Structure formats: C-alpha cells, structure tokens
What does this fold into?
Amino acid sequence: MPCNHKFIKDLQLQYVDWEVKTLFIGTFNPEWEECASNYAQWFYGRTQRNDFWCILPTVHGTNSLISGNRNSWINFCRDYCIAITDIIASIDADVQNERHRAAICNFKDEELPNFDVTLNSIPNILEKHKSIKQICITRQTLVDFWEDCFMDTLQYIEQNPEREIQINLLRSPSRGARKGVVGNFCQFVSNRWLAQGYQIVP
It folds into this structure.
C-alpha cells in the first residue's frame, strides 16, 4: 500500500470557502502512524522543527501562530486570502519495509526522489480558483526531481499568461536550514521572503 499524504482530503483546497490570492506549496507529510514524531495537525504543522506559522504571520504584521492549530491556521489563511497545499499526494512505499519507513519518517525531502510518487495537480487548483495571483514554493531551487514535480505547474503558468501568476521560490521555513541566518530565525526568514518577492496581495 502506498503512503498517502496525511492531509490528502485538503490537497485540492477542499477546506477553502474564500477567494484565494496566494497559494503556498510544500512537499509531503506522511499519514503513517509508524512515523511517531508526526504530530502535525495541518500543513507545516511540525512546529518544533518548522517556523512557517511564525514566519508567515510576521510577514503580514500579526502575532506568531506557532502554537496554533488547524482551526487557527485556516482562519489566518481565510483572513489573508491564502491557501496551502503540498505537491506530493502519495509515495509508493511499503510501511513494512524498514528502509522505506526510515526514509519516509525522517521527513527529509532529499529522500523523496528515491521513490515513485503521485503528484497533486496544481493546474486543477488553478483552474478551480481563478483568483490566484501568486504561488509560493518553500524551496529556493527546483532541480531534477523537484523540477519534474512542478513541470505541469510551470507549463500552466506559461500557457496562461493572461492570468499573470507570479511564482516565488522562498527560503525554507525549516529550522534545519539555518545556514546564513543572523539573529532571530523567524524574523530573518520573514525579511528574506519579502526580499525574494513575496507580495501581500490585496
């Protein structure tokens, strides 16, 4: 059996009841209960290792939501016309295979190219939500495997220039990516996102 995304029922923005202007796209979060440290309640929800829910509110001039939950995070997204998803819907991995389990449960993106994956269709989202003007990918580079994952998205943007969709590659919000950070991590990355082109879309 494949390892599905923990929030597979949210990947096509089924939770959204507002007009989305900005779409954030992450990578993957496994549903396996065997991944003992996966306490995430929603996207970017492993907050002991990831500062996304401090960084994004800080960019928007509001208080950190690092100690929030699914409801407070969705309410924030509603208030600021944001939606969040991940690019990978499932991974062809066997939970009984110790090597597979170790690779999936360490939550490191560099392990994912070793598996066959099923992608989440971002073009479908863009077709359903014509108001999206900005896509933010929380990776600074798209090479090899990751370029392949986002190829359909990049082609959609190129083939629909009238949409004027801006795509931003943003510094990872993971605290493991501390190289070059000066001072407070959350504030540093917040400033970096703005420098990398993130726009507060009205």
In short: The mean pLDDT is 92. The CA atoms of residues 24 and 58 lie 16 Å apart.
